[in-house]
């Protein structure tokens, strides 16, 4: 089975991705969303965790074969970077959201030498702002950032544009469109929900999808 569909099935099965088009979730920004994503749940399901970590490792081998160090995003990417680093026998570290206010005031934890080739490990890509902040911090420290691997992406246009403008590649194991297509096939949502959920993905600020008749 295609990896993106397998991971979509996994995330739906353990409700790491949960779809509720009839009773949308409210994000901190106030946006109404038909999808809730908590990839931390992949860590507590052994079978799904194996699929995810092996998938991330294979993605790195295939697309970033020169990788010398893995750097997780804080906090969600740390465990995945550690597990994948173990599978690939690569060193790993992580990047804080800001500098510590004590000790050596590090932002980057773990050894990173100037010029080392780094892959950033992230769990979720939405608008891309936070992961690009991590990329910038690594570049400022002298790293050569090869790109990003992530478990899931919303494929929002704002995020795609930001990554393109920054000339940074992200490769996700699965994405919003694959998840909702698999969800419709397996009865999590109605097939008629697909188009209105794609309307949300295209423009989360436009809530017209909520009132559409299925």
Notes on the protein architecture:
- The model has no long low-confidence stretch (mean pLDDT about 95).
- The chain has about 210 residues and is α/β, with parallel strands linked by helices.
- It has helices spanning about 5-15, 45-65, 80-90, 130-140, 155-165, 175-185, 195-200, and strands at about 15-20, 25, 30-35, 35, 70-75, 90-95, 110, 115-125, 145-155, 170-175.
- Helix 1 runs antiparallel to helix 2 and helix 2 crosses helix 3 (about 80-90).
- It has 7 helices and 10 strands.
- Helix 4 links the parallel strand 8 and strand 9.
- The longest helix has 18 residues, at about 45-65.
- The chain has a 6-stranded mixed β-sheet, with helices on both faces. Strands 1-4 form a two-stranded antiparallel ribbon. Strands 2-3 form a two-stranded antiparallel ribbon.
- Helices cover about 35% and strands about 20% of the residues.
Distinctive features:
alpha/beta, two-stranded antiparallel sheet, 37% helix, 21% strand, globular
Distance between the termini: 30 Å
Helix content: 25-40%
H and E order: HEEEEHEHEEEHEHEHH
Structural class, by secondary structure, is: alpha/beta
* Largest sheet: spatial strand order: 7-6-5-8-9-10
**Overall pLDDT metric:** 93
Low-pLDDT residue intervals, each spanning 5 or more residues? none
Short précis:
The chain is 37% helix and 21% strand. It is built from seven helices and ten strands. Strand 9, helix 5 and strand 10 form a beta-alpha-beta unit.
């Amino acid at each position: 089975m295609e990896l993106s569909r397998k991971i979509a099935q996994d995330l739906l099965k353990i409700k790491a991705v949960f779809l509720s088009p009839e009773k949308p979730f409210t994000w901190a920004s106030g946006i109404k969303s038909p999808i809730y994503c908590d990839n931390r749940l992949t860590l507590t399901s052994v079978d799904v965790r194996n699929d995810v970590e092996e998938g991330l490792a294979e993605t790195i081998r295939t697309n970033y074969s020169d990788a010398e160090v893995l750097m997780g995003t804080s906090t969600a990417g740390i465990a995945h970077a550690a597990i994948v680093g173990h599978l690939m026998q690569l060193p790993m570290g992580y990047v804080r959201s800001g500098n510590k206010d004590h000790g050596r005031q590090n932002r980057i934890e773990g050894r990173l030498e100037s010029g080392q080739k780094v892959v950033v490990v992230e769990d979720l890509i939405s608008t891309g702002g936070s992961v690009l902040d991590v990329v910038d911090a690594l570049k400022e420290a002298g790293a050569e950032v090869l790109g990003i691997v992530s478990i899931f992406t919303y494929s929002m246009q704002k995020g795609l544009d930001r990554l393109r403008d920054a000339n940074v590649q992200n490769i996700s194991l699965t994405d919003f469109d694959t998840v909702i297509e698999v969800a419709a096939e397996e009865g999590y949502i109605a097939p008629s929900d697909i188009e209105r959920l794609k309307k949300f993905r295209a423009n989360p600020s436009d809530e017209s999808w909520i009132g559409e008749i299925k």
